[in-house]
């Protein structure tokens, strides 16, 4: 039996250096003085940050008031087989016929063969630099429609957003419970894999989003 590939970390570091979406608050770590705060020399930090900072996932509540929070979803929604789509060089992301066909593949029970979709643009190479939040690639309306039609659980991108103002892709995906993972990194490591296992577990909170530790690994053969 072939062995599973090693887990690959697809998350950016979460720290005071993590660039926030313009207008959001910076990460702030409050490190106590061990001698002053503890009788047993243990360390317990506090931090302040947006729930949408760094590599994160968000739920319908982010754009649709009164809808599901991130903690309302079963953990199965955050992990599973994923399709990696190479869309480098496109400003408005339109899928090829082969990519659309792969996205539409189903299991015998009619569920998606790959409930996760990872979109590789290589925009993560600009992380931390000027312009990361400007001019990034966005999903074409027909690509959004294809993702919804395929009934995927989540879509992950190595960009800060699947769209730009007026942000029409967000509500369309989220109202169909297609959760969105933003600010991934290193998706190029997964290119060429016939099957990929992906996971991005959030904290269990009644919030619109949460930071995640996103990981993936190559799986021998096709998705079961």
Automatic annotation (TrEMBL):
It holds the Pfam family Cyclase. It comes from the Eukaryota. GO terms for molecular function: arylformamidase activity. InterPro entries: KFase/CYL, KFase_sf. GO terms for biological process: L-tryptophan catabolic process to kynurenine. Belongs to the Cyclase 1 superfamily. This is Kynurenine formamidase.
């Amino acid at each position: 039996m072939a062995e599973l590939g090693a887990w690959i970390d697809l998350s950016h570091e979460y720290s005071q250096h993590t660039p926030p979406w313009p207008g959001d608050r910076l990460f702030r770590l409050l490190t106590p003085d061990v001698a002053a705060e503890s009788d047993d020399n243990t360390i317990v930090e506090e931090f302040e940050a947006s729930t949408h900072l760094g590599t994160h996932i968000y739920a319908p509540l982010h754009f649709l008031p009164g809808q599901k929070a991130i903690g309302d979803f079963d953990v199965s929604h955050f992990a599973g087989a994923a399709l990696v789509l190479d869309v480098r060089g496109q400003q408005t992301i339109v899928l090829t016929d082969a990519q659309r066909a792969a996205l539409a593949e189903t299991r015998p029970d009619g569920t998606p063969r790959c409930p996760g979709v990872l979109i590789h643009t290589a925009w993560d190479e600009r992380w931390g630099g000027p312009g990361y939040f400007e001019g990034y690639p966005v999903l074409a309306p027909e690509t959004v429609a294809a993702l919804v039609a395929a009934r995927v659980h989540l879509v992950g991108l190595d960009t800060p957003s699947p769209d730009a103002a007026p942000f029409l892709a967000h509500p369309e995906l989220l109202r169909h419970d297609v959760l969105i993972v933003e600010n991934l990194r290193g998706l190029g490591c997964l290119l060429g894999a016939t099957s990929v296992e992906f996971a991005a577990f959030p904290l269990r909170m009644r919030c619109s989003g949460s930071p995640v530790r996103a990981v993936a690994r190559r799986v021998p053969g096709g998705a079961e």
